[in-house]
Amino acid sequence: MGMTPLAGWMAKEGYRICGYDDHLREPVRRLLLEAGVCVYDIILEEHVQDYSTVVYSSAIKQDHPHLIAARAHGLRILRRGEMLAEISQAKKLVAVVGSHGKTTTAGMIAHLLRSSGVEANTIVGGLFNDPDIPPFYHSSSEWLIAEVDESDGTIDRFCPEVTLLLNADWDHADQYSTEAMIDEAFRLLMVRTTSQVLLPAAGSLKNRFIETGSAAITCYQVDESVELPFGGCFNQMNAAAAMTVSRLLGADTSKDALLSFKGMARRQSVLYHTSKLSIIEDYAHHPTEIAALLDSLRQVEPQRRLVVVFQPHRYSRTKQFKAAFADSLKSADACYLLPLYAAHEVQIKGGELSDLQHAFGDVAPECLEMNLTGVCELAAALTDELTTVAFVGAGDIDSFADVFVSWILSGRQLEDAWSHYLASNVSSDCVFKRDEPLANKTTLRVGGMARFYAEPANLTDLRALLLAAKLFQLDTFCMGRGSNLLVTDEGFNGLVVRFSAAAWRRVEILSKDRIWAGAGSRLKEICGSAAKAGLAGFEFLEGIPGAVGGALRMNAGAMGSWMFDVVERVQFLDASGCFRDLPKEAFSFGYRKVEEISRGIALGAILRSPENEGEESIRSRMDSYSSSRKETQPRAPSAGCIFKNPEGNYAGKLIDIHGVKGMRVGAAEVSDVHGNFIVNTGGATAADVIELVRRVRATIQKASGYILEPEVLLVGKCWDDVLQEAEPVQKEDLHVDS
User: Fold this and answer.
1) Which CATH number applies to 634-733?
2) Domain 269-412 indexed as CATH 3.40.50.720
3) What superfamily in CATH does domain 89-263 come from?
4) How far from each other are the two terminal CA atoms of the chain, in whole angstroms?
């Protein structure tokens, strides 16, 4: 949220900006696109080198592939705060600083200026509750109002015209090991301030920061007669600060000027409200903020039972404040904890969730799972009393809150809750359905329905879908063109994700010998693009009826060559959902399986051509392979080769020599063209195919001793289970041509 307003403002200023985020969310993606920022789903080294500067969040580690690529090409590399400081040098900067309330105060200033028609640039560190208002405003004005963050030390780069210090509490122990260190960071900023320092009259800040250099110190008073759309003493203080700054710039600061301010997202945001139940969300992640929030909620609706769900943020902060967190949270009538959000930190002894629980003493709060089980447990704990449920924290607790609200709104019905949750978390181009037939999406043309089905339009959609599946505790299966698949007649009782959108089918020639291919790209299309560019070595893929994602997962092969023969590196989500960009050598690839990708999701790959060659000779070889396939493989619907080749032999050869060609169950038949194909002669069911697989295996094992293992993926059940099921054989179902 610090990067988005900066990127949007710079795009409006005339910079050519591209953006990439491993965990981008749809509302932010839409904002960036509307601002003119190019948003990459997948960014490659070739893209990075087209720019002069890389700006990154402090949450990004130094070994991130994009930073490595930037260093390799000699690009400037700046943290977000360093870039903001650089652009602020050409402006009169009003720096909004402090431990709490920066985003709300900056949002209030932006609102007051906009409402009064006063031109000034603003860069706010959060989304407005009004989706039509971006978190930045670009103007030709010499003034810039921006939040300046102290958390990563980049506060030292700023020299403001005006500094507004809201408060100063010790925080960010990873950066400031003592309270004196964070005080010094604020003090030095005020020393570098050229015109005015604004401080609250109440409290001890003026005494703590009395020596601030040449800038004049102005103290502002809270005016309790100012009308606000929400309560709380913190908001009164923020309003007083915002009005003081706005008055300097000539904005309307009448008593009711903030009544039309709709607030900032995740700051006392009302997610649901009835006479009986209120659900709010707040970004509070410091004990002082939490105490102020709960006090405000008590004041606004004192008759309601207050239930707090808190997610601790970072190990260092939890270790530093666990006792204070416990003290502030004890004022709730009931408290629940969610798993700690680590951000970029590694585990720290004394800063774990169990340590926070222990700090509560004998009445430790219950921990909820971050999924539908936790949601149901929380919902079941609601009583008939008037209740406010507050979701509090700076991590990904907002997703949990969204599921909870969807669960309540749906009447605790999974299908409706799922649809409600996705509606606000994926793009308008994302397709999501319930009870979607899968048979016509596979090359075998058999199988049942997916309970939930989606076609993500981009990586942001995919991540939202995967997070939703995790939260709703749904199994996930990803498919491309549906080859090498057998869907059971019962279908798939989870989420099927299909990579059919244009973003996943992108094929790009990167250089004289390299190609980028997205997970949904047809292998045949890669051959065509490569041939046109004179890149040889991909011809063997021409007749494989699949897409890149599946080919990477199973190291697809034909004509004596394998997918990983032409792979340079792969971008994928690993088993835990983390983005990985790894070279070929990092994978354990073998016959029909790549271990790492089979546990995750391939997003695409850079493929390298072993040699350059003329298009005519490449296409001649493709035509030769195509002719060979047509002569040796059936034309009827199939899933491709049904069995893996056993070591030292070939499945098709064994089926041929032992007279199994033509074996039939229902409308499923062992092809008489190629024995390792089971074809759908018209109206076959998955049960037909599975039973035929059983019988072929039994026949080959009895005749040769070889145990054939299925190569096709079984969706909806496990091969080990179905191959052991014994079903009665009806005489009329069995037909063998000898």
Assistant:
1) 3.90.78.10
2) no
3) Mur-like, catalytic domain (3.40.1190.10)
4) 69
Distance CA 562, CA 83 (A): 46
Q: What is the topology classification, in CATH, of domain 1-82? A: Rossmann fold (3.40.50)
Measuring CA to CA, which residue among 524, 525, 506 is closest to residue 516?
506
- Of 177, 181, 199, 215, the closest CA to residue 207 belongs to 199
Question: Looking at 64-158, which runs of residues are DSSP E strands?
Answer: 76-79, 92-97, 121-123, 136-137, 143-147
Q: Could you say which of 3.40.50.2300, 3.40.50.720, 1.10.1040.10, 3.30.465.10 is the CATH number of the domain covering 506-629?
A: 3.30.465.10
The pLDDT of residue 589: 79
* DSSP characters over 233-289: HHHHHHHHHHHHHHHHTT----TTTTTT---BTTSSEEEEE-SSEEEEEE---SHHH
391 and 398 Cβ atoms separated by less than 8 Å: yes
Supply the pTM of this predicted model. Answer: 0.83
* Nearest CA-CA partner of 386 in 478, 276, 495, 463: 276
Task: Spell out a b/e string for 532-560, using b for 16 or more CB atoms within 10 Å of the CB, else e.
Answer: ebbbbbbbbbbbbbbbbbbbbbbbbbbee
701 close to 709: Cβ distance less than 8 angstroms: no
Query: Over the stretch 317-348, which tens digit does the pLDDT of each residue have?
Result: 899 889 999 999 998 999 999 999 988 788 89
The counts of H helices and E strands in the chain are: 23, 38
Burial of 458 (0-12, 13-18, 19+ CB in 10 A): buried
Residue 498 CA to residue 654 CA, distance in Å, equals 35
641, β-bridge pairs: 677
Task: Give the residues across from 601 on adjacent strands.
Answer: 573
CB neighbours of 29 closer than 8 A, spacing ≥ 6? 39, 427, 458, 460
Identify the bridge partners of residue 602 per DSSP, sorted by sequence position.
572
| CA 642 centroid distance within chain | 35
Report which residue type is found at 218.
T
- 710 secondary structure, DSSP code: B
Q: From CA 327, how far away is CA 541, in angstroms rounded?
A: 64
pLDDT digits (tens, 9 = 90+) for 120-165: 999 999 889 888 899 999 999 999 999 998 888 898 999 999 999 9
The length of the chain, given as a count of residues: 738
Pick from 338, 398, 402, 404: nearest CA to 376: 404
The DSSP secondary structure of 481-532, one letter per residue, reads S-TTEEE-TT-EEEEEEE--SGGGG-EEEEETTEEEEETT-BHHHHHHHHHH
